[in-house]
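Ticket #111: bound-state structure for iron/sulfur cluster.
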Amino acid sequence: MSDPANRQARRRFLKIAVVGAAMAPVAASLLPRIARADTPHVDPKDPTAAALGYTEDAATAKGDPSYKPNSNCANCNFFKGHSEMAYGPCDLFPGKDVNAKGWCRSWTAKA
Ligand code: SF4
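RESOLUTION: The complex was predicted; output attached.
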C-alpha cells in the first residue's frame, strides 16, 4: 500500500473526487436549463391554451376580466419552474413549457 505508484493513484483519485464534489452544485444548477432546452412551448393558439386565454405576455391580458394586477406564470401556483427560468412547466400543460411572463385565466397565487 505504501509503494509510490499506489500513493500517486490515491492522490489522483482524491483530486478527482474533490473536483467532482466542487462541481456538483454548478452542474445541479445548470441541469434544469439543459434538460428543458428541448421542451416545446405552449402555443397560445392551442385549443386548451386559447380556451384559457393563455398569452406569452401577461401585459396583453390586462383587459381580461379575470386578470389580477401583477399576475403572471412565474407567480402562479401551477408554475413549476424556478425564478431564473424564462420558460417552465405548468401543471395545466403537461409536457410543455409556459412563458414565465405569460398568463392565463387559471392563474392562482402561489401558496
Ligand atoms: S395556470 Fe398559471 S402557470 Fe399555467 S399558464 Fe396559467 S397562469 Fe401560467
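RESOLUTION NOTES: Residues 4-36 form the longest helix (33 residues).
TICKET STATUS: resolved
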